[in-house]
Amino acid sequence: MRLRNIKGADERILADPYTIQTDGTDGADFKGRWNREYFHNDHPIHIEIGMGKGQFITTLAQQNPNINYIGIEKYSSVLIRAIDKREELALDNLLFMRMDAEEITDYFEPGEVGRIYLNFSDPWPKDRHAKRRLTSTTFLSRYDQILQRDGVVEFKTDNRPLFDFSLEQLQEVGWHADYVSYHLHENGPAADNIMTEYEQKFYALGNPICKFRAHR
Ligand code: SAM
């Protein structure tokens, strides 16, 4: 998903008032204080990791003004597309972070996050890269640290080997999936579902989309 050479992207991201940098100058200040210092309310915080161009979280934020959303993306070249979308909307409940999710526990306090969305995460197909998968036990243990007690992780992908791997990883850490579908859109677009950019593409190709919702 990495787009190359978007001219001026880094400068625009730095100047964007709704995007937090995690280069040590900004985001860590908000750890444990996102609601008090940034959103100025006590609404639940839901995050999407690897939001790409941001269609999913931007739509969620429009639909749910009483939830605070934080979209996390590693690459400027993609994040800038989400910033473009956000600029057209006046949303007080949506914030972006340019960050590698490996650092997530540096930016959220235990119990600060109510829900984590993972959509069409990079598959990292080689075994030696398995720990980089956002649904690996390595990442689940990070989520364990920041999720509130009844917090959930929702995951969608069209990659069946990654989905099967992810279900195994849940079992390994003793988490439970209370919803599992191997073909979310079997009877046409699922109700109450927001399609991501990747989901639209794969749905159009006829690929079955898998989804789980899991908790500890
Ligand atoms: N979620 C979007 C969608 O469904 O359309 C984008 C899917 S794309 C395949 C995966 C995205 O996750 C990319 O934009 C990538 O840069 C981002 N990503 C991958 N690993 C990440 C990490 N460790 N931290 C933050 N973002 C990450």
Entry keywords:
8 strands, binds S-adenosylmethionine, Rossmann fold, alpha/beta, eight-stranded mixed sheet, 216 residues
Structure description:
Helices cover 30% and strands 23% of the residues. By secondary structure, it is α/β, with parallel strands linked by helices. The chain has one domain (9-215): Vaccinia Virus protein VP39 (Rossmann fold), CATH 3.40.50.150. Helix 3 (55-63) links the parallel strand 2 and strand 3 (68-73). The longest helix is centred in the C-terminal third of the chain and has 13 residues, at 160-172. The site of S-adenosylmethionine (SAM) has 21 residues, from strand 3 and helix 7.
Q: Care to give the gist of this entry?
A:
The chain has 216 residues and is of the alpha/beta class.
Write the layout of secondary structure elements.
Elements: H1 9-15, E1 19-21, H2 34-39, E2 45-49, H3 55-63, E3 68-73, H4 76-87, E4 94-98, E5 113-119, H5 137-146, E6 147-157, H6 160-172, E7 176-181, H7 197-204, E8 210-215
Parallel strand pairs: 1-4, 2-3, 2-5, 3-4, 5-6
Antiparallel strand pairs: 6-8, 7-8
The structure holds S-adenosylmethionine.
